[in-house]
Fold each of these.
Amino acid sequence: MALLRMRKAFFSNAAVSGGPVTLDLDGGERAALNFERPLEATIVALMAAGIAKASTGTVLIGDYDPRVQSVHCKRIAGFVPHEPVALDDAAFSRYIAYRAALWNVDARWAQTHAAGLRERLEGMHEAFAYPLIGALVGMPRLLVIDRPQAAYARQILDVAGDRALLSTHANATAAQAFA
């Protein structure tokens, strides 16, 4: 079963548009999509995570349509935004507690898991590591990352493990680092 199926998925409103994208992504597979505009990369990542709904075409996460079953989609897909997050240790702990509650995960386990991920991501700037750790707290089967830093590709791919991974990029060099 494909974890992510996109068929001519396109998002458009008066200000922005992204797509169309056709893609199948099974468990353990990776796809790195390159777009000319950073905003288009973000829109496609949001569609792939079930956050933005396709205007035309189809997006299925697992067997769920985000337009109808968005809660189920969010249990499968973890989303990592492009924007860095600056948090001190206390704020990071609260962020992990929030993510644990959001994913209905035991808070103590989430804090322990987050601490382990922080160790594995040592050397990655915290502002980029924290959103990734937050997305991984729920143990998603699909990880969608919007324009990740190519310098951290090895570490990101390592912590992603055997999850399906979709990354969007605004330059071909960064996309190659995640392919």
Amino acid sequence: MSDRTRFDDLADAAERYGGCSLDNYAVIRSVAENISTGFCRFLGAEGEVCVHLVPPQGEWSPRPYRSGAFSVSGKGFLPLGAIAFGLAVKVSRTGDWTRLVLTCAKKGHHVEMAIANGPVFDLDLPLGEEPLRGVYGRLHAHLVAWFSDQADLYENGDYGGRSIGFELIHAEQD
């Protein structure tokens, strides 16, 4: 006869879940941090930070939020599933920034990444520099296309919509 109880079974299952959720968060946070620093270098903004990790929803400003940049922040028991985060991207020489929202889900040995109202693509794990350059190119193309499309719509008599899912803010220069 075993001394194990049903509670022991439940606690073991919850501990396994917790380990998986922690691994999921660590992988996605690493992907996000690599994208944040690498995308800034990719954009070629000289001498200043031009991309920050920010919350995917609610108020934000262009500054680092660390763990507060992720949709699971403040949830207590870390949920296991897709995690969203925002990228604050400097888009003008005068201090205008936009937030681009990304959602990542670890699926086996790769991460599925989706740009809000945009394309979905996969990254193999562990991350390599070449696939990350592909992500930077897609993010850049997505942002440039949105601004260009909105200007084209305006020039043709239509203000268009905000279907890309981000807003612009202005931050004072230091």
